[in-house]
Every structure is written in structure tokens, then in C-alpha cells.
Amino acid sequence: MTAKLEIRDVHKSYGDKVVLAGMSFDVEEHEVVCLIGPSGSGKSTLLRCIDLLDPLDSGSIHLDGVDITAKNTDANAVRRRVGIVFQSYNLFPHMSVLDNCTLGPRRALGVDRKTAEAKARELLERFGLGEKVEEYPNRISGGQNQRAAIVRALMADPEILLLDEVTSALDPELVGEVLGVIRELAGRGMTMLLATHEMGFARDVADRVCFLHEGRVLEDAAPNDLFGSPEHERTAQFLRRVR
Ligand code: ADP
Ligand code: MG
């Protein structure tokens, strides 16, 4: 059985700064995997590489057993299957929440406006944004912006969702509502790979947690094992610092 996503010996440097130094791990279908590690440990770089926003130096990434980092890959086709949400607000400021959500499907997938809007309204409703569809991003809260950004990423029915510290730019009181959305998606079996510094949340929602150190996965374990009795002193050190 091949995993949904396989990261194989991925190397990536920026100039002489080595960021990913032989990173490998799998994400199974319906699994939620959290990436943790200090700032600068390569979490964002890896997620960008998976969404083909940044090329690898070597190694490969496989989606359903197919190497998506091969030269002949249709990157747009991959990006429709792999959704990504970033740390800071992603919505276009000059467009309503609804238009933000329907733009991609209408432009890239050729979905007609009516169909796209019906789908967006349904998803926005599901995530508590039913009243905000006509609002502009600067008139809703940061948490609502991030929830709308997640809805936008879901519009193409991605097979896997990559979330890059989606709560770290939020005021603390708004973090919970965004984590609630992720929890809901996890409950419905969405395959997710998320970089997070919310250790309590990772412990709660993740099937597996990967600790990144020096460009590799130093420890890859069930959350109770990794947080409860980390195998490596380096992991324990990191956990002591963030707690
Ligand atoms: P994390 O998300 O874990 O904090 P990043 O993947 O953002 O880590 O960054 C890893 C390292 O790569 C950092 O040292 C960062 O400065 C560097 N880096 C990331 N993106 C670029 C880039 N586009 N150009 C040069 N250096 C980069
Ligand atoms: Mg980052």
C-alpha cells in the first residue's frame, strides 16, 4: 500500500543555507499529521515544496504513488488536489468573502457562477460564516478571515489540505474558532498536514506528530508518545521551551 503522500529524502537549500536535509515521512489517507519544530526548521518550506510552489534540490514527493516532483508534472493539476492555507490572511481585500471563494473554481476549473456560489455559501454556512458572505475581508475578524481562507481552499475538493501555522497571526481569543474548523475537517476524514505551534491542539487532533530538527524528521510518533515521553533529548528540550 502506498501512502497518500510520501516525502522521500527531500533536500532544499537557499544559497548555502540548508533547510531540508533528507526529510522523509508519509501521510496516510484520512490521517492528520502535525509538523512541529523551532522557527526556521523548514516547516513552511516543506509545505511550499509539496504544493509545488518551490522546487526541490533533490528527493521526491509522491501523491497516491505518483511522483509530483517529476519534470513533466502539471503543477496546476496537483494544486487542485492539494489545498494550502498560509499563516497570514490570504483573502483578496477588494473582493467579498463569497467572491474570494468562487474566484478560483470559476477561473481555474470553469465552474459557472451559480454552482460555485451555491457551494461556497454551503461551506461558509457550515463554518459559521453564513452571515459574512457579502462582507469584505477588512470588515470581519482575523479568525473569520482564516476560516474563509480555509473554505476557499476547500472549494476545489482537495484530497489533502496543508495548513501553515494558520492560527499564529491571530489574537488568542480567535484561535479556538479556527482550530474548531480544523477539528471538524479531521472528524470528517480530511487528510491534513499542518505546521503548528499549538502543542495542545496537536496532541488533541493529530494522529502523528513529526518533530523537525536540522532539516530532517528527528522523531515521528503518536502525539501521546511524542509529548509524553519523547525519544530524543532534542525533542524534549524543544517541548520544555514551548510549554
Ligand atoms: P519554519 O516555517 O519552520 O519557521 P521556514 O521554512 O520558513 O521555517 O524557513 C527555514 C529557513 O529557510 C529559514 O532560515 C529561512 O530564513 C529560510 N528561507 C525560507 N524561505 C526562504 C527564501 N525564499 N529565501 C531564502 N531563505 C529562505
Ligand atoms: Mg513557517
Automatic annotation (TrEMBL):
Main location: membrane
Keyword vocabulary terms for this entry: Amino-acid transport, ATP-binding, Cell membrane, Membrane, Nucleotide-binding, Transport
Topology of the protein relative to the lipid bilayer: Peripheral membrane protein
SUPFAM superfamilies: P-loop containing nucleoside triphosphate hydrolases
A Pfam family assignment: ABC_tran
Residues in ABC transporter domain copies: 5-239
Family membership noted in the UniProt record: Belongs to the ABC transporter superfamily.
Organism from which the protein derives: Ilumatobacter fluminis
Cell location: Cell membrane
Domain of life: Bacteria
Single GO term (MF): ABC-type amino acid transporter activity
GO cellular component: a single term: plasma membrane
Protein name as annotated: Amino acid ABC transporter ATP-binding protein (PAAT family)
Entry keyword DNA repair: no
